[in-house]
């Protein structure tokens, strides 16, 4: 199930929304305040400079930027370029916009997407880290990304040199999906040596950005970009990171967004492990293998398709063996009779009971009565 | 200030207590119950088999062991050997018996000591780990032991091969003190290749055991010995340890005794780091350097002398610079006037105020009024 096909043209309301999202100096907070005051993006662009300045945080400089946005942003040109390159454009209220991203306090006002975001990408984990990765760090990123990919988890990262690039590549090599979130426009990927990588990712996932498609990489965009990496995922794994680094910013975003933070420990005399060790002191979960991650992840925003033709509500379900999976799929969230489960699975009742005990201990089902069980 | 000199002979009460502590199959719990029932060790050995069996947990087998103890233990021979080798014998209620060890639920009924336990050994930290240490693990044990020793902290360990031995040696090389706790008798050190190490430790600390001086190493004694390692210290650092290992047992003892547990992270693909990582998951403090340890340690059972001629109440005080140290030493636990502190230190009042702020932020002093400050 891929993203809803993009409308070939946009109505005036959508165009105004995209323009607002691309207006320089208007970040998610100001955008929200403006929409609260004027009700629609169209109304914002029709407003006078004086009335714009009634909004807290908007002075002469920003009000002028808003009024000049239509000229400055060159929306028509950007939309034409997007169409020409087959980009998908997503607004927060549209179907196809990732639900987990919609739930963060400051969701991007627009996403430009190369490739496709699928419903299965709800089950996503970020792997991030330093550009100056050690052999050890790369090995761990590779191992975890491959393991997550094999488990059907989409690996999200920032396509930077070092850990990020390794994570994307390992996920794809394992036959899995991966999403790269860029700070620059998706048609202007950074760093330049990853242009080819972006093309590969487009085939096995998506390259996306909230910046206009041809936007060059600006240093100030990177920290802000990181909220999208964590926001797309159930949890963020920091593999190697210096003490002040983008990966730690991503981890802080994940914490604020209520997502899990994982850190891979390493040698205490390796500078790249000081970031993960700091996170571990601050309560991040220690990761040595993929199971450590899957067991910690909470329920999905909505059920996602799994690789075995069922659906997944909690990430740890991908750890189940065939019998456990079959029994789980036969149990309804509203509760099922144990006899019915046994009949549906064509299994003797004692085997169903034993399996339900396992599922209970993994907190995937709960007994609702002596002979009834419900999926959590 | 060394241990109180040992009395050349023991009175009957003391002899009975030592005998009770050495009686096979009578551990700390049974010993406590017996003393509750019979009030003294002498009375226990005068009791009938029938009355001994009135104590919970004592059946015919153990009551016979108690009655046969005087013969089996060969107390006179052991005491003669102890005297001949200049061992110090300590009973829990005697001065010189380590106070931190007296506070654990199951203190040894007797300690045989080669070398000397000093008052400064109250400020002790255990460093323990696997016998099959990696180069990385040994390097960390060495670095931490040396750093602790230089800070005036006594390093306690189990004199095993691997991490333990490295920790003892590094503490001595740094000019510090170290204590080895043996499972065998102190005159029968294990492993055999550490006989020379024991002689060195005796010169710069102590080798001690609750076993009779010539007792051979028995496998069952090692886990029990580990409670003494943690019990002598404010905290235990686990450097490298396999998943089921003696070092983890020491860490669990430390937790139960209310002492700190520290773990050194390492490469996730190194089996020796799986123990520390498990401890970190269970809430152990992550250690990368000595300061990480000192900052976490709570107040000492009683003030200990420091290397600068003052006294120490909280381990983190060894981290202070000269000025901070001088100001701290001028502040009484009952409170001092700031003007008096300034006069005692021959310092301008603004400097005292600034230094007091630092000490306050390190939670070493507290303001008790606008112009009064007290040591914590």
TrEMBL record, chains A, B:
One of its GO terms (biological process) is DNA-mediated transformation. Residues 91-297 form the Smf/DprA SLOG domain. Pfam families: DNA_processg_A, HHH_5. Transmembrane segments: none annotated. Coiled coil: none annotated. NCBIfam families: dprA (TIGR00732). Belongs to the DprA/Smf family. This is Smf/DprA SLOG domain-containing protein. It comes from Lacipirellula limnantheis.
């Amino acid at each position: 199930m891929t993203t809803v096909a993009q409308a070939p043209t946009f109505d005036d309301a959508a165009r105004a929304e995209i323009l607002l999202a691309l207006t320089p100096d208007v970040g998610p907070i100001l955008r929200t305040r403006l929409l609260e005051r004027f009700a629609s993006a169209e109304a914002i662009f029709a407003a006078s400079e004086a009335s714009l300045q009634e909004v807290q945080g908007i002075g002469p400089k920003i009000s002028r930027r808003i009024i000049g946005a239509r000229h400055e942003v060159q929306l028509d040109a950007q939309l034409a370029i997007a169409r020409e390159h087959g980009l998908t454009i997503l607004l927060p209220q549209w179907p196809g916009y990732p639900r987990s991203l919609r739930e963060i306090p400051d969701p991007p006002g627009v996403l430009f997407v190369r490739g496709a975001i699928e419903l299965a990408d709800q089950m996503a984990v970020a792997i991030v880290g330093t550009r100056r990765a050690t052999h050890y760090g790369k090995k761990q990123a590779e191992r975890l990304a491959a393991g997550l990919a094999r488990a059907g988890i989409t690996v999200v990262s920032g396509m930077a040199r070092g850990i990020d690039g390794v994570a994307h590549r390992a996920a794809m090599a394992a036959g899995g999906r991966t999403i790269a979130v860029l700070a620059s426009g998706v048609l202007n990927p950074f760093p330049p040596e990853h242009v080819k990588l972006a093309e590969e990712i487009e085939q096995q996932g998506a390259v996306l950005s909230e910046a206009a498609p041809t936007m060059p990489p600006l240093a100030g965009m990177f920290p802000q970009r990181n909220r999208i990496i964590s926001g797309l995922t159930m949890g963020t794994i920091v593999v190697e990171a210096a003490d002040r680094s983008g990966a730690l910013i991503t981890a802080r975003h994940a914490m604020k967004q209520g997502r899990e933070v994982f850190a891979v420990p390493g040698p205490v005399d390796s500078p790249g492990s000081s970031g993960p060790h700091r996170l571990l002191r601050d309560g991040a979960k220690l990761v040595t293998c993929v199971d450590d991650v899957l067991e910690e992840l909470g329920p999905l925003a909505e059920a996602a398709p799994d690789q075995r033709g069922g659906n997944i509500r909690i990430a740890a379900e991908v750890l189940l063996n065939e019998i456990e999976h079959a029994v789980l799929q036969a149990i309804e969230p509203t509760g099922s009779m144990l006899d019915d489960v046994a009949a549906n699975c064509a299994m003797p009742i004692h085997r169903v009971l034993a399996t339900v005990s396992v599922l209970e201990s993994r907190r995937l089902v709960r007994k609702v009565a002596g002979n009834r069980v419900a999926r959590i």
